[in-house]
Design brief:
It is built from six helices and five strands. By secondary structure, the protein is α/β, with parallel strands linked by helices. The chain has a five-stranded parallel β-sheet, sandwiched between helices.
């Protein structure tokens, strides 16, 4: 699986650790930035880059990291078809795929340490969408998105 990574200046080291961890597990990782921890950047641009990479099929899923994971996920979720979920522990990361068919996991570099972050991404990428009644709910979310698309 090919995974897109994006982060702001607060999360560059955690992004590097997670990319290395997932590459060691056999995933292909694409870095969409940021790259310099000394240069302040705006997280929405990196959330958008990864979301657009998923939309264009450059990558299959994404990992986004900012201070809390919230802002960068909000930006990504503005792209139709993107389902980015902030997760701070493995159980939610697993269920967000199994029940919500999330295609991006987001987390906060100021919230989780590197070992917990590894467990979170492992749970996310090991999970499979269950379909069934969950597919109906994901379709309902897509319908809401379509209703408000300009």
């Amino acid at each position: 699986m090919k995974i897109g990574f994006g982060c702001d200046h607060t999360a560059i080291e955690l992004k590097r650790i997670l990319m290395e961890h997932l590459q060691n597990r056999g995933f292909e990782c694409v870095d969409y930035g940021a790259s310099d921890p000394n240069v302040r950047v705006n997280y929405p641009e990196f959330g958008l880059k990864v979301a657009e990479a998923i939309k264009s099929n450059e990558v299959e899923k994404g990992v986004l990291i900012c201070g809390t994971g919230v802002g960068i996920s909000l930006a990504a979720n503005k792209v139709p078809g993107i389902r980015a979920a902030v997760c701070s522990e493995p159980y939610t990361a697993k269920l967000t795929v199994e029940h919500n068919d999330a295609n991006i996991i987001a987390m906060g570099a100021r919230v989780v340490g590197s070992e917990l972050a590894k467990m979170i991404v492992d749970s996310f990428f090991d999970a499979k969408f269950e379909g069934g009644r969950h597919a109906d709910r994901v379709r309902m979310i897509s319908d809401i998105e379509e209703k408000y698309r300009r």
